[in-house]
Amino acid sequence: MTFSYCPKCGRKLIMKEIGDEGAVPFCAECSRPFFDFSYPCVICLVTDGAGEFLLIKQGYVSENHVCVAGYIKRGETAEEAAAREVAEETGLSVRSVRYISGWYHEKSDNLMLGFVVTAEHGDYALSGEVDSAGWFGAEKARELLSGSRIAKKLLDAVLSE
Ligand SMILES: [Zn+2]
């Protein structure tokens, strides 16, 4: 995201040299810079900790299986967002959350922060945003995520630990 107008007062931003950052969009009225940024999101590989992974299908996102993902809310940590998204979308009780790596998703301009989330291997209760889900072994999960660049990198990173 690049700002052209001030998100606080609506004035057109000017470019101003700010230290090592170089020229940055700046509001002369509010006297503050508005740096370019990418929306921070979490992408969560849900595991039962015993070799199986929960993948979901969301028609509005993709025809393929995907990992649980969502935007980090204001005031929330990335870890809190990961636990919240998994609980909300799957209804599973979350045991632990661990950061793996970050990847930039150019098409959506999102910074995807990848987590492995360990949850109870119980019955899932899907949210309205999720069409279906299933627990899969590592090989099947790799196959199902083959069309999803970042989800596959996340799975590969976890499997190679
Ligand atoms: Zn302003």
Mind explaining what this structure looks like?
It is a single chain. The protein has 161 residues and is of the alpha+beta class. The chain folds into two domains: 1-36, no CATH class; 39-159, Nucleoside Triphosphate Pyrophosphohydrolase (Alpha-Beta Complex). The chain has three helices and ten strands. The strands form two sheets. Strands 4, 5, 6, 7, 8, 9 and 10 form a seven-stranded mixed sheet that branches. Strands 1-2-3 form a three-stranded antiparallel sheet, with no helix packed on it. β4 and β5 (52-57) form a beta hairpin. It is elongated, with a radius of gyration of 19 Å. The model has no long low-confidence stretch (mean pLDDT 95). Residues 6, 8-9, 11, 27, 29-30 line the site of zinc ion.
Helix/strand/pairing category: alpha+beta
Count of spatially separate domains: 2
The CATH first-level class of the largest domain comes to: Alpha Beta
- CATH architecture of the largest domain, by name, is Alpha-Beta Complex
Low-confidence stretches: none
Number of strands: 10
Task: Give the SSE string.
Answer: EEEEEEEHEEEHH
User: End-to-end distance, in Å?
Assistant: 34 Å
Helix content: 10-25%
List the total number of helices: 3
Q: What percent of residues are in strands?
A: 35-45%
